[in-house]
Amino acid sequence: MHPAVLERGEVPFRDVTEQAGLHSKGWTTGVTLADVNGDGRLDIYVCHAGLGDGGLRANELYINQGLNADGVPTFVEQAAAYGVADSGYSTQAVFFDYDRDGDLDLFVINNSPRPVASMPVKNTRNERDLLGGAKLYRNDGGHFTDVSAARYLRRRDRPGPGRRRERREPRRLARYLRGQRLLRARLSLHQQG
Ligand SMILES: [Ca+2]
Ligand SMILES: [Ca+2]
């Protein structure tokens, strides 16, 4: 921020939500900024949760259209077209290139809608929940495909030729998440210092 702005007592931010075409409804839980389509402009992915209308729970992807005549970036919501309108109980998401093919894939954390105490005693780790389980989406040329069951959460149920690759992918994801935790810890130390 330019110091002159503070000296003049001006408000450095202005609300351009409507002008930008952002119109989220329902209960929003998390937001992620990433250049999803690789055009050099940051796009916005919004996570939703909450009981009731599943339509209001669909996550949104706002694709950046560039600046309008007033210098405000405008967005068009295209989650369904990209295949990422996840209607689970989402809390947060991250875009990263998990298969190293040059495009951004998507990992979404979905919270379980059921209290842990209500679950049976048996181990349900390998049972998929459509709305409550974390999801891994692979970017296939601009459209995302849910590969959670095949590539990640149920890998132990799928022996065969692809087994080695399937074992590597969760390890890559764990390495990435570990790196993110370290980065956050360093930023925190830096800010405290
Ligand atoms: Ca973009
Ligand atoms: Ca990729």
Characterization of this structure:
- This protein has helices spanning 3-7, 79-82, 148-153, 163-192; strands spanning 27-34, 43-49, 60-67, 73-77, 90-96, 105-110, 135-140, 143-146.
- The protein has 193 residues and is of the alpha+beta class.
- It has four helices and eight strands, in the order H-E-E-E-E-H-E-E-E-E-H-H.
- 23% of the residues lie in helices and 26% in strands.
- It binds calcium ion (2 copies).
- One calcium ion binds at residues 35-37, 39, 41, 43, 64.
Top keywords for this entry?
single chain; 193 residues; alpha+beta; four-stranded antiparallel beta sheet; 23% helix
Question: Topology, pairings included?
Answer:
Blueprint: H1 3-7, E1 27-34, E2 43-49, E3 60-67, E4 73-77, H2 79-82, E5 90-96, E6 105-110, E7 135-140, E8 143-146, H3 148-153, H4 163-192
Antiparallel strand pairs: 1-2, 2-3, 3-4, 5-6, 6-7, 7-8
The structure holds calcium ion (2 copies).
Mind telling me the C-alpha Rg?
20 Å
Query: What's the helix count?
Result: 4
What is the average of the pLDDT values?
82
Percentage of β-strand residues? 25-35%
Provide the succession of SSEs: HEEEEHEEEEHH
Largest sheet data? 4 strands, antiparallel
The total beta strand count reads: 8
Strand order in space, largest sheet: 1-2-3-4
Outline the low-pLDDT stretches: 154-162
Helix percent reads: 10-25%
Which word captures the global form?
Answer: globular
Distance between the termini: 21 Å
